[in-house]
Amino acid sequence: MSNVSTKSDMNIVHNEAAKRFETSIDGQTGYISYKEREDKLVYDHTIVPQELGGRGVGSALVKHALDYARENNKKVVPQCSFVASYIDKNPDYKDLL
Question: Which domain holds residue 77?
């Protein structure tokens, strides 16, 4: 059995009260947090526990958060370096900046 998780088997939820998108795998929770500023979402932290490292959890969370911004006609401010790097590597999201 593989330890690799794919986006399809990750249940990413929008925790509006905590202002973050999160997923729990094997009892560990990874998340990307944000702040709202007018028509922008400021993504400020992406946290993935060491136990989930290398499984694509961070990338899946960022993709989900960016797709949410697009679906809701929001611009993105990538304060988190992981989010900025993801956008650099995936230029389809540059229009959100």
Answer: 7-89
